[in-house]
Amino acid sequence: MKQKLQHYFNLLRGQNKPQQYVCINCGSPVQELYKRISSTVLKITECEKCNHPADKYIEFEVLIILIDLVLLSKPAYRHILYNSDCKNLWKIGIILVLLEAYCLWTEAFSRFTNVRYRSDHADPFLAEKGFYVSLAHIFIGTILLYLFLYLFTRILHRVDVGHDTGKPYPMALLHGVVLASIGKFFFIPIIIWKQNTSDPGMAIHISLVVAYFVISLTQIHSVISGCTRTRSAVIVLLAFIVKTYFLTEISAFLNSLM
Fold this sequence. Notes:
This protein is mainly alpha-helical.
């Protein structure tokens, strides 16, 4: 009985499940990324399907990987999502939510979204209330985008996505949304030079960052779900538009809290 219970807990912890990787070139599953020839020599495993190195990024510096991520490289996305532990993605996600909420609170987005949570109350504690409402606005928007992406993928792409990659599709999609949001760091110049930028210039800046986010999310969705870029673009745009509509309705309720 004790052995059966131990086996059950091991299954829950995933201790009996071998680590699954993917080839960053074609997305096919591979059992290992490298073979140890000696104590000091490693050889990258070749993919049996495409006959290319399974993951060249295990030999690259982090800076090179980041550059490829900025350039929307599918192999770089596969490396981060499937062949690395993704332990710091949740920290990046928290920072990005706080950054976007701060931009919304300081009215950097007010002329672009017509949403205003800034309070000019003399009491600083009451004035801070707008930041927490902005934080709720951004957090709800992120959750809605994730849910609609998952829903529309299930409806428009009738394939058991993520079944052969070793990572559940919902978890991979969540990591993908966070990874695509890294482009929102380009909102930082809006905070720094907001006073010296015209309204049309700020609107163009925000539009370019949002467009980059949508393109990045389309590329990542194509990697995770196996959809073509066209179908992924349709799914992402639908999810983004529906999320924006529902979030506009929710913002009226959040404004009532001010």
